[in-house]
Amino acid sequence: MTAPKLTLYGALDLLRRPDARMVMTNVSSKDGNAMRSEYWISPSGVRVEPKIAEQIKAHPQVIGSKDGIWPGHDQTWRIGGE
Question: Cα dihedral angle (61, 47, 44, 16), rounded to 10 degrees?
Fold first, then answer.
């Protein structure tokens, strides 16, 4: 039995929890030749499908943190406010 896929509304609900963030990580294939991005909601540890992650990033209440390895790039996103 597999877990149901996280919907946009389910992901936004998780992001409304205190200290919640969506985090982008980069992972390589087992042979090390390919890289891909994965998105997770922390601290709950729930994986977000790339399509849903793009919808979250485009949501008007979601703020990028400009905390990526390259200056000015986002690596974490949260619902507005401090």
Answer: 10
Domain extents for the chain?
8-79
Mean pLDDT, the chain, as a whole number? 87
Whether the bond into 43 is cis, omega within 30 of 0: yes
pTM of the model: 0.81
3-class DSSP state of 13:
helix
d(CA 68, CA 43) in angstroms, rounded, equals: 18
Looking at residue 52, its amino acid is: I
Mention every residue, 6+ apart, whose C-beta is less than 8 A from residue 66: 72, 73, 74
> Alpha carbon 8 to chain centroid distance?
11
